[in-house]
Structure formats: structure tokens, C-alpha cells
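ok so I'm stuck.
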Amino acid sequence: MFIDELKGNLNQMRDISRELNIFYNHLRYFDHLKEQKIPAEGSLEKNLLQEAAISLNNQLRILNNSIPGIIGGIIIDKKISGKISESKNLTKIQYNTADESRISLVISEKDKNEFLENLNRSRLSINKLKKEYSAEPAGIRKSNLYAKFANFFFRNISNKLLSKGYFKNLNLDLRKINSRFVTVTYVSIIFFTSLLLFISSIFLFALLMFFNFSFAYPFISQSEEIILLRAIKFFWILIAFPLIGGFLVFIYPSSEARNLGFRINQELPFVTIHMSAIASSGVEPDKIFEIILKSEEYKYTRIEFKKLTNLVNFHGEDIVSAMLKISYSSPSDKLRELLNGLAITTKTGGDLHMFLDKHAENMLFDYKLEREKYIRISETFMDIYISIAIAAPMILLMLFIIIGSTGLTGGIFNLSLNVLSILLILIIVFLNLFFLLLLGLKQPSF
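replied:
not stuck anymore, here's the structure
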């Protein structure tokens, strides 16, 4: 029907207008740099933006000129089947977009070649812009075989649980860590992991029914206990392993989100200082984030800023809405506070440089307090390390030597002194690794 064709044209005009708004905002940024006599890089980017804008303008003009003819067709052919009338000199064109969605438009017959030419020209320019200046990751993530199996077995169950309101906070945690998995898939992974651990625990349970394991030689020996007693003794394995494994997979997103938030908080004082210096030149807020992205110093904060610039550049969001969306899903409370403050300051026309300068001072003060706290924690760890990993083993080794010199070879806990010495050495090795790991986790990256 002509009404459907009119809707299709109007929707496409709306999408073109949104893209033009994005391109003109970028072009105004280049004009601003020129007015401020600031040397600007990216003449190729400016030329591509201008070419894309001209082509989109021509498409918008052609679609706009077709509207009177379509409306006339609706009035005249109201009772006739909605095929395009030859008398109206209108023709239908169809093509696929970059995301493979089908577009159907009605334009004037005489403008068909011009429209297709401008369509190809705008596509070429936009593809070059995305290739050269996109903040999106270059690679495409491959499908995960483990997730495929999990969905095959548990997708329906996961959908039912989610529809009943379970796992409400899991989706937000997955977005905070930029997970490739949607909530349904991740819930399926939890169940599938628990299933695999249950199967593994059955094999372990069957093995423990007939064999004993010991640190002393022989390390594996056949059990002489009654099987029923051993089944009661080790039955907990069948329940504990799947529950613990599923629980660890479930809490991973929230745990990783806290860790990511901690890393972002360490970078934020220096990011804010950098942003304040950029804002002092009077550039627009969205350009501040793009300049920060060009720096490779802020590994974790860049991830959030990438998402923000993509919302503006490729999804047509205004900068205030994009900052509010990113702040909602940010794993860092301090970054959330910064973005909310920037959004309010931008919306109300406040001084960005002054806001960022004051915010940087507060963050630097908090950063100094965190460093002092880390130094005190390191001193405490050092005292504990000296007591547990150095003094205690030396005392125990001296006791073993004294016990061995007295001729008491029975050992302790039915273990010989040689076995106890080896175990003590292994414990010292693992203690050292544990303290190194703990200090590494607490070590500030900035």
C-alpha cells in the first residue's frame, strides 16, 4: 500500500537526518579548531565527512521530493490495490543495509540513478570512516563452543527462570565487565558447568570407594573399609563439587566488576587531570573523550570511553544521554560520579574546565590516601610474612633435627620426619607464592 511506502520513506529520512546530525557535529569541531587557530590533524577525516554529508543531503532531498507523489497516490488510488502507479512516475528500489536489514523506498523515476549514485558514494565514505576512525574493536569475536553446548542443554530452563525474575542483577554485572554473553547464555553456562562437575564428582566418588590416597609411599592403596561406610564418608563430594563450581561461575561477573572498578579508580585521577587540560582549550565534551582514547595510557578507562564514543558516533546519541547510559553500567562508582557530573555540567552550560579541575583535586587527595593505606598494608604483610614464612619454618626444622637426633623415628601424624620436611618445604613455597599474588593484587597500577 502507498501508506506503507510513505512510512518507509519517512523512516529512512529520519535515519538520514540522524546521521547528518552526527557528521555536522564533527565538521563543526574542525571549524572550531580553525577559528581557535589550533592545528588539526585529520584532513582525510574532514573530507570523508563532507563527502558523506553531501551524499546524504542529496538522498534526503530526493526522498523529500517523492512525498507529494506518494500522498497523491494515497488519495487517488484509495480503493485500488497499492501497487506503484506508472502515471505517478514513481519507482520502488530495495537494498540491504550494513546490518543486512532490508530497505524499501519509493522515489521518482528520474531521480533513481542519482539516488543510487549518492547511496554508493555515502556508503563508501562511511565505510572508510569506520575503518580508519572507529573506536570499535577491530576483530569480531568468534562463537564460543562451550556456550553453544550450554545453550543446547539449558537454554529453555534459563529462559523460564529469567522470565520469573531470577538473576536480576546478573545482566548488569555482565554489562559492567563487557561480557560477550547475554544473560540467558551465561545462566546456561552456570548450569552446564555444574553438570560437568557433577559428572566429574561421580568418577571421583567411585574412585574413592575402592582406593586410599596418602602423602606417604605407597601413595595409592586399595581400601579395606566397607563400601557402605566409605560411601557415607564421601557422599558430600557429589553435592559440594557442583554447588561450589556453579556458585563460583555465578559470582565471577560481580567479582570481576569490582576488580575492574578498582583498576578504573586508580586511573581516574590522572584521566581527570588530562581531561581538565583538554577542556581548558574550549573543545566540545565529546572531543575530550576522543582525545583521551588516542592515548594508550589508560587501559581500563579507555574501555568505558570507547563505549561512550560509539554511542555518540554510531548510535546517534547526544553526549549527555551517552554519559548517563555509560555511568549506569560503569563498574566504577567514581567514574559514575564523574560522568554524571559532566552530564549535568554540559546540560546546564557550566564550565567544564572548572568542574574537572576541582574534581581532579578531590581525586588526587583520595589517591594519596589510598597510597598511604597501601604502604601500611604492605608493612603489615611484611610482618606476617616474616613470622609465618621465615621464623616459623626455621623453628619447625630445628625441632625436626632435634627429634631426629634423639632417635625417635616414629614421626608425627604417622608421617616420617623426611616426609614432614618435604611437606614443610612445599608449604613454604606455596606461602611465598600466596604472598606474591596477594601483593600483586593490591599493587596499584598507577
